[in-house]
Design brief:
heterodimer, A: mainly alpha, about 0% strand, B: alpha+beta, 4 strands, about 10% strand, flat
Chain lengths: ~450, ~200
């Protein structure tokens, strides 16, 4: 082993994955772990007692479950849309943020996947949505949105994991070799199994890049379908404010600020928590912040269209239902936090790390409020001839929301702890291309 | 009859010819050269093709499309396999759901026609995308001969750096032109940092 050559530039990334945890890391793991325990308790109570532990009832058949589901899908979608576009455009930024954008998308899909199963009422019978030959000779009702949802969410989980894993294979091989060089045989075997025996043959690289870009391209149509299926669950009902053809587009456009906001806040955490400032540099953060602002514009257009269509174009029932939504604070807060607040980021002096975290998280919260406005306020004009109490979430629902956020955090912490958070081979590739350009000059 | 059966049984269960008397030297696992950068590796690959070496592999810590093209590797089959599998899955999912709800067990839901084609589209579309993505990964692994957790080249000196910052060209001992001396002579002529024999593993 020649020791005189300088250490490879990506050593920092690999070491971030292999070094011992500091007190901040332990605190993060402890908090997220406590949240996941809370989630387990909430799920156990739901399974044991039944769906009555939640605050929803007629007419509010959906409450926190569908709000959180639609919101998490939006987060996952925007994060993986961002990662896929970076891979397909072969943008320089992809070396920095595409890997953890993929990871954030995967963690968000896992959090989202909890809800459709749990809100079934009898979650242990979820396999009834699968077309398997059974003794009753019955088949699922394929026109049901519940069945579309089953396919939608399972495909979303699988394709997002694939996208993440295909890009990770070569970096797992790097970690395997580094662990082997440090004499940690068990760890080397652990990473080696995940790397599938990757040996870096240029022929393998060639096909790997084709497969990676193929999966990235396939993520794009899947994102459309993932949000669309969620939106169709609302659109196929006869509720006045939900029964609208514009809903899929509305979900896709307004979902963007949530995912980009969370990716932006995570990028700040990476820069300072894992000291990866040279891999996620100021230019990367600048671009990401402007993307969030642009996503805010798209979301504002969606809200503008929603208000315009409901007030000027639709029939009386829809207009009345939408006016009820305008009477609550959620719709206005969503527009301000998810749409207007990110517009501040167009202004350069405000593009700083301590601004990014609140703006990103508030944008995500704003999108959550938009889902609240649609799910809860959208049905507040009951079509039943007796007074009904307003929807109020129960403690179990809050525990489930907090628990799913903790699951998201725990998945990301595990990822940051055990795996390279920045794509190492793409960093190397970019550096060697950079060196070649300099030599030619 | 008995004799034929006996002969067949003897042939099936006979001991392999003993090789205890002839002690062969352990056969090496090929010859390997180490390079500093991707350009040197690409040049070496071109030279190897020009000189008529056939069974060799080049290793790099990041994609080197020029070297792959010089080896005559085409990535297009990955895309075609994925697209084909995706289209087949889409047609299969539509066909299956349509058959089950129109022919096998039609259910009248609010007087709608059994073959209301738009309701079969979401699942078909999603399954097509899902299977295409799975096929892209599997086609990549299959064409690459992975997963293969062990390979003789892993025993090469310094090969752990192939995943970090070094480039390697390995000539297989199964190459018809391969002799340790000939391969070493060729690799030394390619401006490599180091040439060594891969020990058998």
């Amino acid at each position: 082993m020649s020791t005189e050559s300088p250490p490879p530039s990506t050593a920092r990334v690999a070491e971030a994955a292999l070094r011992p945890l500091g007190w901040g890391g332990w605190l993060g793991f402890a908090l997220a772990g406590a949240g996941v325990v809370l989630l387990a308790i909430a799920v156990a109570r739901l399974l044991w007692v039944g769906i009555g532990v939640w605050g929803n009832n007629i007419p509010h058949v959906w409450g926190f479950d569908l709000i959180a589901y639609a919101w998490w899908i939006g987060v996952a979608n925007a994060a993986s849309l961002f990662a896929a576009v970076l891979v397909l455009r072969r943008h320089g930024l992809r070396t920095a943020v595409n890997r953890f954008a993929e990871a954030a998308a995967l963690a968000a899909v896992l959090a989202a996947a909890l809800y459709p199963i749990l809100h079934l009422g009898r979650p242990w019978l979820f396999y009834w949505t699968l077309p398997y030959p059974n003794t009753w000779g019955l088949w699922p009702q394929f026109g049901s949105t519940l069945v579309w949802d089953f396919w939608g969410i399972s495909a979303h989980v699988l394709v997002t994991s694939l996208f993440w894993y295909v890009g990770l294979i070569p970096d797992l091989a790097t970690l395997r070799d580094r662990a082997a060089r440090h004499g940690r045989v068990g760890l080397a075997r652990f990473y080696g199994l995940g790397a599938l025996g990757w040996r870096g043959s240029v022929a393998h690289w060639h096909r790997h890049q084709a497969a990676y870009r193929m999966v990235a391209a396939l993520v794009l149509p899947l994102l459309l379908s993932a949000q669309t299926v969620v939106a169709l669950e609302f659109a196929v009902t006869v509720v006045a404010d939900w029964h609208q053809a514009r809903l899929p587009l509305h979900f896709i456009a307004t979902g963007l600020p949530s995912g980009l906001g969370i990716v932006l806040a995570l990028a700040v955490a990476l820069r300072h928590g894992l000291s990866l400032r040279e891999f996620v540099d100021r230019d990367d953060m600048d671009l990401l912040a402007r993307l969030l602002a642009a996503a805010g514009v798209a979301a504002l257009l969606a809200w503008l269209h929603e208000a315009g269509a409901a007030l000027l174009q639709e029939d009386g029932a829809t207009r009345a239902a939408f006016l009820v939504r305008l009477g609550g604070p959620a719709w206005w807060l969503a527009v301000v936090m998810g749409g207007l607040l990110p517009q501040l980021l167009w202004w350069r002096p405000l593009r700083r790390d301590f601004v990014f975290v609140p703006v990103g998280l508030l944008a995500a919260a704003g999108v959550w409020l938009d889902r609240w406005s649609l799910v809860v306020d959208g049905i507040s004009r009951p079509r039943v001839p007796f007074p009904v109490p307003a929807y109020a979430p129960s403690g179990d629902e809050w525990a489930l929301l907090l628990g799913s956020a903790s699951l998201f955090a725990l998945a990301l912490l595990c990822f940051g702890r055990f795996l390279p958070i920045v794509s190492m081979y793409e960093t190397r590739h970019e550096e060697s291309e950079h060196e070649m350009e300099e030599e030619e000059r | 009859m008995k004799r034929i059966l006996g002969a067949a049984l003897y042939w099936l269960f006979r001991h392999p010819p003993s090789s205890a008397e002839v002690v062969l030297p352990p056969r090496g696992a090929g010859t390997i050269a180490e390079f500093r950068d991707a350009d040197a590796l690409t040049e070496a690959v071109r030279a190897a093709r020009a000189e008529g070496w056939t069974l060799f592999e080049a290793y790099a810590p990041h994609p080197v499309p020029d070297a792959a093209e010089a080896m005559g590797i085409r990535a297009a089959p990955v895309g075609w396999l994925a697209a084909g599998a995706g289209a087949a899955a889409m047609a299969g999912a539509y066909g299956l759901t349509m058959y089950l709800s129109v022919v096998d067990y039609p259910v009248n839901v609010g007087g709608r026609p059994p073959h209301a084609w738009p309701v079969f589209l979401p699942a078909a579309y999603i399954l097509g995308v899902l299977v295409a993505a799975l096929a892209a990964l599997l086609a990549m692994l299959w064409l690459n001969g992975l997963p293969r957790l062990h390979h003789p080249v892993f025993a090469a000196r310094g090969f752990l750096r192939a995943s970090e910052d070094r480039f390697f060209l390995w000539i297989s001992p199964d190459d018809p032109m391969h002799t340790p001396e000939g391969a070493q002579r060729f690799l030394r002529a390619q401006a490599s940092l180091r040439v060594s024999e891969v020990p058998p593993s």
